[in-house]
Structures are given as C-alpha cells and as structure tokens.
Amino acid sequence: MSWTPEDAPWWTRAVVYQVYPRSFADSDGDGIGDLRGILGRLDHLAELGVDVVWLSPIYASPQDDNGYDISDYQAVDPMFGTLEDLEELIAALHDRGMKLVMDLVVNHTSDEHPWFVESRDPDSPKRDWYWWRPPRAGMAAGAPGAEPTNWRSFFEGPAWELDERSGEYYLHLFSRKQPDLNWENPAVRDAVYSMMRWWLDRGVDGFRMDVINLISKDIALPDGVVTDGLLADGSASYVCGPRIHEFLAEMHKAVFAGRPERLLTVGEMPGVTVEQARDFTDPAREEVDMVFQFEHVGLDHGPGGKFDVRPLRLRDLKASFGRWQTALADVGWNSLYWDNHDQPRIVSRFGDDGRYRRESATMLATVLHLHRGTPYVYQGEELGMTNAHFTRFDQYRDIETLNHVAVAKTVGTGSDEDLLAGIAATGRDNARTPMQWDGSPNAGFTTGTPWISVNENYPTVNAEAERADPGSVFHYYRALIALRHDDPVVALGDFTMLLPDHEHVYAFTRRLGGVTLTVLGNFSGEVQETGLELGELVLGNYPDPAGSALRPWEARVHRS
Ligand code: NOJ
C-alpha cells in the first residue's frame, strides 16, 4: 500500500516474535515449556525490542500435532498452565507495550473435540460440521481406494479416515486426528466467530490464522490427478477454494469490525499466489492484514518434495521476493519470515552455521528485515540458533517427519543415510529444539528431561552469551528492529532490486522522501565486488569500516 508515515497502520513499523510454547521455557520441570516459563522471560523480549508476540497454540489438545489439534478452543491445556496464567501473560505484555496474537486453528479441530465426538453419530446435528462421505460408489468401506477422493494428506496416507460406527469416511487434510471443519455450514462459522470474539474480549490483539486459505473446499470434492501410486494432490480443490474471500470478509465483519485498530491478522496461506495475496490483503476488501506465503521457503525443495533438498540459487530467491515486493507495492502488504516452527533454521539453510554463523545469521536478518513488510522473528533466530543436526531417527518427535520416515521405509526407496540427511536438512524438529538460554544443563530450558533434545551447541550459542557480547547476533537483531521503529524509509520506502542476476550478492534500495537506503548482502564465504556507489554506513555486520568489496557473508545498509 502506498501509505505515508502519518496514515500507515502501526504494524508497518512493528516486528513480531513467535513463541513456540512447548520449546520456549519450562517453569515446572516437566520438560515441556509453559506459560509461566514465558512470563519469566519477558525481559528477553523487551530487550530485543519486539512489538508483538505470536503464541503458537496453548489450547487444550491431545498434542498429536503439538497443539495444532485442538479439543477445546476456550481452554488452556494444563500442560501449558491455566487461563489465569494466560491472562497474566496478556497483562504483562501490555504493561511492557507489547501485544499478544494467538494462533487460530480452525481449518480443523482435534478428533477429540466435543464437536467431532458428537459428529461421529450420523443422526447428530453436528454431523454436517465435518466432511463425512460414504465410500466411493460401488466399493466397500475400507477397501483399498474406496476413499471418497484420492487426495493425499499433508502428513502422508489418504486424507480420509473410515469411521466404523457409520461406515463413512471423514476428511482430514492433516493427521487423522485433525478432522476438517465444514465451513459450508453457517453454524460452524458462527461458532468460530463467537470463539474469536471471546478471545478479543479477553484482551488478545489478533490472530495468526493456521492454513486459513484451505477452509473453503470445492463441494463436488473431485479427484486429483494421480502422480504415483493411488494417491493424488487434491490441492486444486481446497487451496484458496471457491468461497475463501467470502468467508474471510464475513469473519472480518463478524469479529473485527468496530474494534479499535490495535489488532493484527495474518493468514497462513500455503500455495497462495501474489495475485491472490494482493486481494487478501487489500485493505478495501477487509479480509486480513497480511499473509504468510510459501514461495521462498520452497526454493530449495527438489522434485521429491521438502525432504528432497537442493542448494538455493540466489537468483531464484531474488526473483521471488522481488515479485512479491512489486506486486504488493500499491495494494496489500507483505509479511517477512525465514523461520517458524515448521521451517529449518535459516542460518543452517541459506547461511553457514559453522565458521560464519554470526556473519551469515546477521546478513540473512539484514536482507529480510530491510524488505517492505512486517518481519517475524522465530524464537532463537535472534541468537543465531542452528539446525538440530540429529543423526538418529529416535531423536525426532514431529508427526510429519515420523510419518515420512515410516512411508519411506515401507516403500523401501533410498538408504537410511539419505533419509536421515533429508530430515536433518528440512525436518520441522530443527526449529523445535529447546530455546538456548544459558550454558547450564539443558541450556536453562528445563530442570527436568526436555521433550526433545537440546542442541549440543548450547554452551556457546545461548542468550546469556549473546547478551554479553556487543557483536552478537542478538544485539544485531536489536539494531535492526530499532531501525524499523525509527526510520520510516525501512517501514514504507519503495523497493527496487539491484543486481538481479548476481549469483552471490543480494542488493536493493529502499526510497522515501529523498532518502535512499542501499542494502547489500553477501550470500557466500568469499569476497564479492559489487561495483555499486554507496553512501554513509547505517548498519553493518563487520566491526571495522567497510571497503568497496563485501567480505564473507557481509551485510550493509547505506544511506544517501
Ligand atoms: C500449519 C502449522 O504451522 C503446522 O505446524 C501444522 O502442522 C499445520 N498447519 C496443521 O495445523
């Protein structure tokens, strides 16, 4: 959007910090992070300078997918604490001038949610709250291929599960314990909206909406095109489905309209295109403030998918980000992220987590945060935390990874070594190892046994060490966040990509009211010449003054 510093929404100047509660801080020694653990670490967030905390799910849940399977939207899981703890957290964040955005997981519930439990009864009024269908015509329930469609679930296997009680199947795009809600039913939508209002009335400042662009399905439920075996990609029937804009506009009216402009909404949208994102985030349409798109985090996926990793080509990254910056320049808004609880650690992915860990983590941060959009920092990213570097299958906990391993082993393709290499590169547990607070046992995360191993590098990579070192990744993130707060050109300046074909240097300008920032990032461990004219140095990740060439993983921001 072409806002001015005077009329731009507050979140154009804001930085969001994601807390994955299970892995952040454990206050009671059960090995799992909790709300009181977060309350004990607010100084860290305040010192970093972030404006908003996005809290991954803390609701009652059987934890099949670490809380993204909710059995009660209006209760806190005892594992994380109580509603009173959450209210205390909201108040404590507000006292410090920070906001709290909750995760909203309403594409699906848990199969243990009372709505679904009731829905298993074919005569129940809740039957139509989920997607129940008989077996494929002419086939017996349970026979191979009898599922109502041939769609594959995101977590392997068919997206349909047979329920013996009625002999019908229910749809689950994720695990079989995550049945999809039927958004065609207005009673479902009303129940979701009233739950959202209940949270806003409790002081919550907005929502990060889990896979929200999957809620509208093509009601004909057509088969997808089979690529291998019996299963197919059904995404054409549910990614940004027929009624998605209608549902989000209706939600906006029912939940957000008339509320003060303090809120933030961000829709997680796998498969969203730039054109669609522009519509979703066009303020005039009143749907969501911004979306999480997935293009840049798919650039290192090979033909075999996310576990079939290949090196990033920097030109692809520039072409992708550049397209999003241009498409949302006049209408809409970007969110900017490298990491979250589903992605590997960026310093291990696109940087060098060995010799140049500090330099590459700060370079990647510079490039991301100087784009136009709202940056998201995932817990530990501000410390330059690295991938887990697990070497054994039994170290993994994530359902997606475990299901992938089980299927790969059944099919028998590839060696264990290749399988381990794939999951070590892109598995979601890379981001889920405990937050590294200090050099004490278990990195100060817990006094008990952590639910997943702590990264072995915690004696050197931890918050206490980073805070004590003025040249650390942590202090660099502080400077970047402060720059966005203080300098309107960072929030609102126009974006122009430079050197689009350079294989190692990422370069662009931001311009506003006669000020130009030139941003440079060296995506390599070698010295790179840029040939660019540069002004005064505003920020850089090397301590000594800059020459004309970029040193290994060097980042700089110049002003002219
Ligand atoms: C996206 C979430 O970020 C991920 O962790 C989860 O597994 C799926 N949605 C299903 O809720």
From TrEMBL:
Residues 18-432 form the Glycosyl hydrolase family 13 catalytic domain. One of its GO terms (biological process) is oligosaccharide catabolic process. The keyword Hydrolase applies. GO terms for molecular function: alpha-amylase activity. It comes from the Bacteria. Keywords: Glycosidase, Hydrolase. InterPro entries: GH (IPR017853), GH13_cat_dom (IPR006047), Glyco_hydro_b (IPR013780), O16G_dom_2 (IPR045857). Pfam families: Alpha-amylase (PF00128). Belongs to the glycosyl hydrolase 13 family. This is Alpha-glucosidase.
